[in-house]
Every structure is written in C-alpha cells, then in structure tokens.
C-alpha cells in the first residue's frame, strides 16, 4: 500500500486543520498516512514515502515558519527521485498581499531540486479552510495519487 507523508507547521491552527483534511482524504483513498509537525520531522522524513506533502503557513513578510527553517534548508539536498510531491499553504492576502502563501512557493522550489515529481499545483488557502477549500484539497490528493502512475 502506498504511503503518504505530511509534514506541517501551524501557528493559528489553520494549517493543522488543512493537514488533517489531507490526512483524511488520503485515508479515504486507501493510503497509509503519517502526519507530523515540522518540529518532529527529521531531514530524512520523506525517505520511505511514496507521496510527500508539506503544509505551511507564511510568517510576516514572506518568511518560512521558524519550526520549518531547518527542514526547508535540508530538503533540497534530499534525493526524492521516484516520489511525488505536493504543497499546500495558508495565508492572509489582506494583511500580506505581496507575500500570500510565499512559504508554500519556497517549498515547491525546494522540492523541485530533489528529483521528486510535482503531482499537483500548490493549493493556496485564505486563512482557515472552508467547504470549498476542503473540496480543493480532496482534488489535490486525487491528483497526487494519480501522478504516481
């Protein structure tokens, strides 16, 4: 059975909520799932994963969350060839219009250097996920699974 791994950082709970939606969506599709907070993820977290997902918020003016800095720095040095990746981000476009979900974009760039295959476009969510966002996340999961083939 395929294994999806999700690593997330959260401050307000919005991104944790997204990671929970993703976990449920993968489970509903019959995959095994491991979901951990960024502080608990070692640099080799994705080594045994088939699908690698990062869920992040953007701090202040486009900064990575503090607890994701080391993980992000080591990610581009990983060899994730043969794996599929996806990124989901939360942000506030009213407070930070120039940096909306910028950390998600930074993770997408880091993943590109790993040799992993981009399985879906990055999902960017305004603050807390609503019903429409939940459907976007479910579609995101299905695209990631389909990209494995």
TrEMBL record:
Residues 4-145 form the Flavodoxin-like domain. Belongs to the flavodoxin family. One of its GO terms (molecular function) is FMN binding. Its cofactor is FMN. PROSITE patterns: FLAVODOXIN_LIKE (PS50902). It comes from Loigolactobacillus coryniformis subsp. torquens DSM 20004 = KCTC 3535. This is Flavodoxin. Low-potential electron donor to a number of redox enzymes. Keywords: Electron transport, Flavoprotein, FMN, Transport.
């Amino acid at each position: 059975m395929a294994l999806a791994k999700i690593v997330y950082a959260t401050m307000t709970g919005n991104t944790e909520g997204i990671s929970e939606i993703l976990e449920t969506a993968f489970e509903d599709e019959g995959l095994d799932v491991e979901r951990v907070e960024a502080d608990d993820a070692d640099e080799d977290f994705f080594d045994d994963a088939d699908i690698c997902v990062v869920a992040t918020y953007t701090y202040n003016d486009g900064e990575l969350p503090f607890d994701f800095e080391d993980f992000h720095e080591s990610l581009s040095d990983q060899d994730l060839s043969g794996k599929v990746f996806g990124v989901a981000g939360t942000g506030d476009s009213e407070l930070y219009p120039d940096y909306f979900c910028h950390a998600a974009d930074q993770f997408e760039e880091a993943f590109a250097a790993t040799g992993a295959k981009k399985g879906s476009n990055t999902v960017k969510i305004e603050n807390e996920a609503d019903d429409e966002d939940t459907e976007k996340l479910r579609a995101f999961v299905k695209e990631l699974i389909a990209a494995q083939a």
